[in-house]
């Protein structure tokens, strides 16, 4: 994503630093990351929903309404963040046990997860802020804040995991503290810019009060996107829980493959972000033909970006694996078919991600929700379960991920080419 372009690199670096602490800390991080991702991704509607609504208002030249929508999104972020943090801290041991963690991984992971999830209010405030700035076609501010956040996280990771720069060596706990601090920096920076910067004066409402008519469209989009994103994250959490029952080596290998998957998806999502913001703007201005032409350009760019990632992964396979782990067992679990499968599907992934952004910007969230629910429940979850029961191992898990992405490719391309998204946009 343009606004958080450094996130995939941060995940890669964080995984590599923790991987050098041993297999158990990396496995504990894998479960914690899956849980955090599953929870946080439910609230990414604060990014996508706010972008779509603000982008529509921006295209219709309703300047003050953009700020009103943003303030309502901030309210949802604060309330939701506090509830998520409280629940996560309390249920942390139960969540790790439910994911199949052994006692060593559980001891390593519970405190890590509790510190990470305590930052939920900050990350949700940042989500809402990213949505606002994208909606008004300003991707520079969230990008700069994201680089500040990731830079803070990386420096503190290095200092707190290993004990550098005069700070104590806290291992996995240090990584969690670094993440919490960086999330606070991101939230604070976003709010300061909106409320005190001259660049946002025209968007700040003269008066503000909670209004249900302004919360309702956010909840409408949020409901569809939360269900759609929840289904996707549930599939990934289910996969991690299944792999955890295959042993720490398999879990560590799965975490590395997942971080590489996210590297490709998050970078290509920069195109999806542009597509979403522009689609919302064109729909708000009633220029649907222009939106369709822009969408075709997105497909070409997304596929090309995916091809570049595929070539890079295949060309540097051994070096990439060695960068993450010195464990021979983990290298063996990851090498060969899984890594090749991950690489070859990157072009298809690129097209899927950009069309996701386009359809969200066109208000076609109900379709995305239904397609994802079907793909998760009918395709991916059964294949993951069979992988454990029939001994297919990681190969079965990643075959299931590939089939799920193929389903998303077919459904998204059909929806775009058929122009049925335009009907949904007109209805909205």
Overview of the molecule:
This protein has 18 helices and no strands. It has 428 residues and is mostly helical. It has one domain (7-427). It is globular and about 60 Å long. The two termini are 26 Å apart. The model is unreliable at 1-6 (pLDDT under 50).
Coarse structural class: mainly alpha
Question: How many DSSP-defined strands?
Answer: 0
**How many strands, what sense, and barrel or not for the largest sheet?**
none
Principal-axis shape: globular
In terms of DSSP E residues, the strand content is: under 5%
Helix-residue proportion? over 70%
Low-confidence runs: 1-6
* Helix and strand pattern: HHHHHHHHHHHHHHHHHH
- Helix count? 18
Whole-number average pLDDT? 85
Number of domains: 1
| Alpha-carbon distance between the two ends | 26 Å
**CA radius of gyration:** 21 Å
What are the SSEs and their pairings?
Elements: H1 7-19, H2 23-42, H3 45-59, H4 63-98, H5 103-117, H6 120-135, H7 140-162, H8 172-196, H9 212-244, H10 248-284, H11 288-315, H12 317-324, H13 328-334, H14 337-344, H15 346-361, H16 365-389, H17 393-418, H18 420-427
Helix pairs in contact: 1-7, 1-10, 2-5, 2-9, 2-10, 3-4, 3-6, 3-9, 3-10, 4-5, 4-6, 4-9, 5-8, 6-8, 7-8, 9-16, 10-11, 10-13, 10-15, 11-14, 11-15, 14-17, 15-17, 16-17
